[in-house]
From TrEMBL:
UniProt GO BP: DNA-templated transcription
PROSITE patterns: HTH_LYSR (PS50931)
GO molecular-function term, one example from the UniProt record: DNA-binding transcription factor activity
Ranges of residues in domain HTH lysR-type: 1-59
Superkingdom to which the source organism belongs: Bacteria
Protein name: HTH-type transcriptional regulator DmlR
Alphabetical keyword list: DNA-binding, Transcription, Transcription regulation
InterPro entries with a match to the protein in the record: LysR-type_TF_proteobact-type, LysR_HTH_N, LysR_subst-bd, WH-like_DNA-bd_sf, WH_DNA-bd_sf
Record family assignment: Belongs to the LysR transcriptional regulatory family.
């Protein structure tokens, strides 16, 4: 039996926790998936999965294999794709991760534009505000906002963005317009818990930092939800400019403290250290770098 098929069946089963889900993912029968995994265990002389009536779990040997097998299979796919790409253009799958709001507002559309140029490619976009484990989840490239301290990944800066303070005209008419960052501490502030320091808002003017420790009735882990609350008049938000641009243009939100600057944060494409970057992934990152400038998402 083909070792590659056995490894693919094992990885799919381990990642989904189910022979049935793995079979659906691979497009084969449940019985054949289970057979492939059993033959791999026989080949290796060790049990890889703990089988129960409800779920499939990993043994220590299975954990060791899962830590390395997805990358091996991806490398094999990349080698085959490189040969095929030279004849017919890019093909296969690129798995992409991105934060939810940035992914919905920008990345999905960018991938659509990239796909139009490469009709034989399949693009798998996964949105999550938690940083993805690129190796464990088989992610080829992730688009991230802000800095990362992970040593096992490489990154390419695509641009920078700023956060903007804003509130609805109704809220400002009712509560007054802040004149200094210190005034924010007396206002209702909508806290985006995705930020590293969600209640510590830092602004700059004339080379000096001004820190406001804010509070408010509403905390939410989505810039879009925070924007909706602000539009409804529930307080002041500190949100990425790309997330609230339509509301600002339509006048549903008004900038607050526009004379004070906010810190810039990078937008990066990240991928695993130590692996040769496939040409199709490299092409996607190059495309994103140009597209992000053309779309004026970042500064």
């Amino acid at each position: 039996m083909d070792l590659i098929d056995q490894l693919r069946a094992f990885v799919a089963t381990a990642q989904t926790g189910s022979f049935t889900a793995a079979a659906e993912q691979m497009g084969i029968s449940n019985r054949l998936t289970s057979k492939y995994v059993a033959e791999l265990e026989t080949r290796l002389g060790t049990r890889l999965l703990q089988r129960t009536t409800r779920k499939v779990g990993l043994t220590p040997s299975g954990q060791d294999l899962l830590a390395r097998a997805p990358a091996l299979l991806d490398d094999l796919d990349d080698v085959l794709s490189e040969v095929s790409d030279g004849v017919s253009g890019f093909s296969g799958v690129i798995r992409i991760a991105a934060p939810v709001t940035f992914g919905e507002i920008y990345v999905a559309g960018m991938l659509g534009r990239f796909a139009d140029k490469h009709p034989n490619l399949s693009l798998d976009l996964r949105l999550n505000d938690q940083f993805s484990d690129l190796a464990a989840e088989g992610i080829d490239v992730a688009f991230r906002l802000g800095t990362t301290d992970t040593l096992s990944i490489k990154s390419r800066k695509l641009g920078t963005f700023r956060a903007i303070l804003a509130a609805s005209p109704d809220y400002l008419a009712r509560a007054g317009t802040p004149q200094t960052p210190e005034d924010l501490q007396r206002h209702a502030c909508i806290v985006d818990t995705n930020r590293k320091n969600p209640k510590r808002w830092v602004l700059q003017k004339d080379g000096a930092d001004h820190v406001a420790l804010v509070t408010g009735q509403h905390q939410v882990n989505s810039a879009r939800a925070a924007s909706a609350l602000a539009v409804a008049g529930h307080g002041i938000i500190y949100a990425p400019s790309f997330a609230i641009a339509p509301e600002l243009e339509a006048g549903r939100l008004t900038p607050v403290l526009p004379d004070f600057a906010t810190a810039q944060s990078p937008v990066t494409a990240v991928y695993l250290e130590g692996r040769v970057l496939p040409r199709k992934v490299r092409a996607l990152i190059d495309f994103a770098a140009q597209d992000i400038r053309d779309a004026e998402i970042c500064s």
